[in-house]
Amino acid sequence: MGEVFNGAIVEVGHDDPGKGTVIVRDPAVEASVSGAASLPLGADVRVSLVEADPVRRVTRFALAG
Question: CB of 9 within 8 A of CB of 40?
């Protein structure tokens, strides 16, 4: 938890533009991401790991910084 990774925003929520999907390159993972403001679709970002539960198969990130 709290580790920071490089990623790219690939989807932004229609109802809540502060939530979406990020692809992290290393390790390769696609997961939900949230931010305090609208997420920048298509932008390279730094994200911080918020939750990782392999049993429930849940991974969540937040914009870092």
Answer: yes
